[in-house]
Design a protein that fits this description.
four-stranded parallel beta sheet, binds aspartic acid
């Protein structure tokens, strides 16, 4: 990829102590209205003009921009590989990383990077905005400035938040626990099953107990293989046999995220269970994830989920669909042993689910 690199010359009076790498991928934060009135991404050089304060920070900032900034609805596997590679390549040079990204798929990207960057010991903070930075009431400045601060914050010389996060609307969330829940208001993200890692007000109040601790001597490893032969089947009352059958028959398909009701319940009609059994027997990995944002899958709690457990559907516990889809893509490409894929799907890899999974 042909990145554009911009180094900001800071005007800070004191000696610069911190360095942050911003990866600009696109998103509303850096969009402007085109002639037809639609929002389209523009180049980072123009964004800098909108935040002159950046130059006054006591932080040395480098920006690597995607050659063509994108609406995050266009994110693909190669973009994830690029983001992870940029962080891996520049890991030793910077205290932390800020990824400017559209909100639409931010939770997917943050989840995927949490798996691809194994042994991460520095902050990777995803942020963006609901309103373009050029708008008076934009949330972009606050989101970016606080993300930069979080990216350089240390305690006893160690990064306070050494994990992949999303910072948005005064709240820092674990990336692979987040979900976009709002498309109009500023509070775009939630993490129903895991506490916020920090809240920003006059100070940034860190929830140390929830943050993954820094581990001395951990080596960063980067994975660049992903496999997208997966699909999400969202159950709804009235779903037909034909639909499920066609999904299962799909050529090359390897994994299904089954979005079930409540605590992991599905119809108990024989045709449905037979098809699920067929899918498992065929070698497809089927992971049961709840349609509810909060709570968890407990297979066996109701009769309507007991059978799923019996036929070998795996429980996603309290994982989000975003974290589950990306985890499946990651494991399919990086774990050769089928039983290990099954074991890892029901076990936390990067804090994306709670330990209890049944
Ligand atoms: N469509 C935009 C994107 O995800 C929305 C946003 O940035 O908030 O790129």
């Amino acid at each position: 990829m042909n990145y554009k690199i911009v180094r900001l010359n800071t005007t800070a009076k004191t000696e610069i102590e911190h360095a942050v790498l911003i990866i600009y991928t696109g998103g509303t934060l850096g969009m402007a209205y085109d002639a037809q009135g639609a929002l389209v991404p523009f180049n980072f050089g123009q964004i800098l003009e909108k935040i002159p304060n950046l130059n006054n920070l006591n932080i040395s900032i480098t920006v690597i921009s995607f050659p063509e900034p994108i609406d995050s609805s266009n994110i693909n596997l190669q973009h994830w590989v690029d983001m992870a590679y940029i962080i891996y390549e520049n890991y030793d040079t910077y205290d932390g990383f800020v990824v400017l990204h559209g909100t639409d798929t931010m939770a997917y990207s943050a989840s995927m990077l949490s798996y691809m960057l194994k042994g991460l010991n520095k902050p990777v903070i995803f942020t963006g905005a609901q309103l373009p930075i050029s708008e008076m009431r934009s949330d972009a400045r606050e989101n970016l400035m606080t993300s930069l601060e979080i990216a350089i914050t240390k305690a006893n010389g160690k990064p306070v938040v050494p994990e992949v996060c999303i910072f948005f609307n005064h709240t820092l969330l674990r990336g692979n626990r987040s979900k976009k829940v709002q498309s109009v208001h500023f509070d775009a993200f939630e993490s129903e099953n895991y506490p916020a890692l920090a809240e920003s007000g006059i100070i940034i109040d860190y929830n140390y107990a929830a943050i993954r601790p820094h581990e001395e001597g951990k080596q960063l490893r980067y994975f660049n293989q992903l496999d997208n032969q997966v699909m999400v089947i969202k159950l709804f009352p009235g779903i037909t046999q034909n639909v499920i059958e066609s999904c299962i028959k799909m050529k090359r398909l390897k994994g299904i995220i089954l979005e079930t009701y409540g605590s992991g319940n599905s119809p108990s009609e024989p045709w449905f269970l037979n098809l699920m059994e067929k899918a498992v027997e065929k070698g497809l990995f089927v992971l049961n994830v709840s349609q509810c944002n909060g709570g968890r899958v407990i297979q066996g709690r109701y009769q309507t989920s007991k059978d799923l457990k019996r036929i070998g559907v795996l429980s996603g516990g309290d994982i989000t669909t975003e974290a589950a889809v990306t985890k499946m893509m990651f494991l399919l490409a990086n774990e050769p042993d089928e039983n290990e894929i099954k074991r890892k799907l029901i076990t936390p890899l990067a804090g994306e689910m709670s330990v209890l999974s049944q």
